[in-house]
Structure formats: structure tokens, C-alpha cells
Amino acid sequence: MPKLTFHGAARTVTGSKHLLEVDGRRILVDCGQFQGRKDLRLLNWTAFAFDPKALDAVVLTHAHIDHSGLLPRLVAAGYKGRIYCTPGTLELCGLVLPDAGRIQEEDARQANRHGYSKHKPAEPLFTEADAMRALTQLQPFGFDRPIDLGGGVSCDFQPAGHLLGSAYVRMRTPQGLVLFGGDLGRYGRPVLQDPKAATEADVLVVESTYGDRLHPADDDGERLAEVIRTTIDRRGKVIVPSFAIGRVEEVLYWVKRLEEEGRIPVVPVYVDSPMAQEALNFYARRSDELDDEMSQRGRAMRMFATKRLTVTRSSQESKQVTASRLPSIVISASGMATGGRVLHHLADALPDPKNTVLFVGFQSEGTRGRQLVDGAKETKIHGRIIPVNATIVRLDGMSAHADQSEILRWLRGFTRPPKATYLVHGEVTAMEALKTQIVSGLQWRVEIPQMHESVEVLA
Prior knowledge:
Metallo-beta-lactamase, Chain A, Rossmann fold, 2 domains, 7-stranded mixed beta sheet, 22 strands
């Protein structure tokens, strides 16, 4: 009987890894890093709870690190097979995985140089070279194209609307259909198309990041405009910790639109991320995956270019942006303020009440971003205690994750209830709230698996 084991994103938001065993085939869906709390991050350093060498295939839903970020370690541990993904995911992984390796190496060097690591010497989780090796095993397939995984098992990708190339996976087995939802996008948002409707599954695995809440009603960007106007009026900076792919594009879309409509002043806008230019170009080259408005606008720098946009590339340019005291908007990775160049901007900006730090995505428990939005009065950055005097703002309305109502909207597209629905990729309170809504509204069987729990499916 087929067996499904949840090796990540079980009662937590990160580390997605789902192992399907059917008729002797072992297929892993996603291989993501754990982020957030220290006890979760430490799991990234442990041996996999399965034998990478015994896997027959890996299927990747999208390029975000919490779904793709342990692929370099999986390959280093002996996995030699193909990693199936969409072409958009392949392109973005070519940016994010080597960049993550570089950040890991730089963080280790910084820790060794300044002596703030408990490990002597500090080592990277994986290197840029590890990431490059993993990329050679990625095999792209377009949406709606069947992929033969052997043993009578096949799958295909369907647009999920969460990120360029993001997909949910329909896995067909001799016993029935298993659908892995990946991360679901939103309806009626700029840049990306809506998630494609799903009509059936015998077993469904679906995310629950915002399962306990609703995003604010669309205000046509007015709250963002107010944050920018207020900060610029007091001669401060708006620092936007942003995921290097996905969020940067929507932030730029809104800033450009607000400028064009005269709703905010025109100030320097810096995208301080080495991969930003390439990511923007990827979006332009795949305009068929964008919503109608964006696909009609043309290439990336016309779609996203504000009037005074600068994409910094070198560390020296980044330092100049940090040192500048001119009012500006600075968009920099990472989205949860856990590493990367944004930490230098935060260390400089947080002590000054003129500045605003604007979070535009989900903040996992235990991350620096979560601490700041929860009201922390100080935070540690690179071994230093930094006072928090800047204004901290969180805009959930710009999240790329479907909220409770949008998840339910997608589920209502099914023509028959799955035999079992498993909630993953969410904090427990969000999972419980979403389960209650699905059970009461749809009368489906819903389960919330434990980490490493195995269940027999398709009985």
C-alpha cells in the first residue's frame, strides 16, 4: 500500500519534504531548509531521515529556500537522480541556490573573523560549489506535461500562482491521484496569474501558512503609500526586508504605480540584492506566466523600473547605500531578516526613529523579522545588540500566500472530496483553524501530521 511520510513542514511553516513510497518507488516532493526557531534550524545540519541514495526521483514545486534549500545537501549525501521542476523554477534555483551557498560561506567567514559562533571553526551549511552540483541534476518540464517517474507513477505541474514557475503537483499512481499543493498563490493580485483550479485528488497535501487569518481588503496600495509618505516626510529611509525572488517584483510594481499616480514622492529606490536584475529579467522572459496587465507591459525594467531605481551589485555599492542619509527606499534580502545584506541596513537604520522597517511577507516563529513585528525593543545583529527605535510595519496584504478564504476558494473547486486531506506548511494554530473551516464547511476528512509521521494512503 502506498505510504506518505512528512519529513518537513509538519506543524511548522518551513522545511518542506514529503516522501511518497509506492510499488517500490521512492519519490521526494521538495527538499527545503528549516527556518525560524533555533531548534528547527538545527535540523538542517542533521542527517536526512531517509536514504538519499535510495530515492528514485525528486519533484520540486518551486524555488523558495524552504522548498529547495537542502537540495545541495541531498546531492552531497549521494542522491544522483533527476530533480524535476518547471523551467521558471530551474532559472530561479540557478540564482537562489548558489547565492544561498555564498551567503552561508560569508556568514561562516564573518563568524570566524569576529568570534561570535559557538562552533570552532564555523562552517557553511553548504557551499556555492555544492549548489552548482545540485543544479546539474535539475530537469525542467513545462506545465501540463506528463513526467514518467517509472513503475507506473507519473506526475505533472499545474500553475500555483505563488512565484514564477511555482506549481502544484498531480502525482498519478496505480492506486490513485495524490496532489501536492506546494505553496498556493492568491487571486486578483498583480504580477502573477491566479492559481489554476484543481478538480480532483484521492489524497491532498495543502499548505496552511495563513490558515487562521484573512489578508486585509485590497486598498489599492494606500497603506504602502502612507508608510512611504510618512517616512520620507521625516527624512527617513524605508527598509524593506524582502525575499530575493517574488516579493521584490511586487514591491517594485507598487512603488512604480504609486509614483506614476503621484501618490508618493519620487525618491531613490535601491534594490540591494546581487540576483535582483537577473530575477527581474526572468520575469520578463516568462511574461506568459504573468497576469494580463504585466504581460502587456513588456520587459522587466519597464514593468518594474521606478524613476530613480538603482540595482546594487557590489558590496561597496551596498555600503554606500547604507551610509547614505538621504530619504530613500531600500529593498534587500532576506525576507525574514535572517541573513544577507539587509542585516547591514537594519543595523544602521533600526536605532533611528526617522526610519521605517517594512515587512511584506510571512515571518516565521523564531526569526528576527518575527521578533521585530512582535515588538522587540532590541535585536542582535552580527554579534551586536541593536536598539529598535525605528517604526516597524507589517503589510500582510502583499503576501504571496493564499489566506484562509483563498485556500477554501481553491478547495471548493474540487468536484469530489479527497479521501484524506493533510495540512502542512503552517504553524499549529493556523492548521487547527483551517482544519475547522474545511471540516465544517466542506465535510472533508482533514489530518495534521506530526514530523516524520508515516501514513498509508490510497487504501
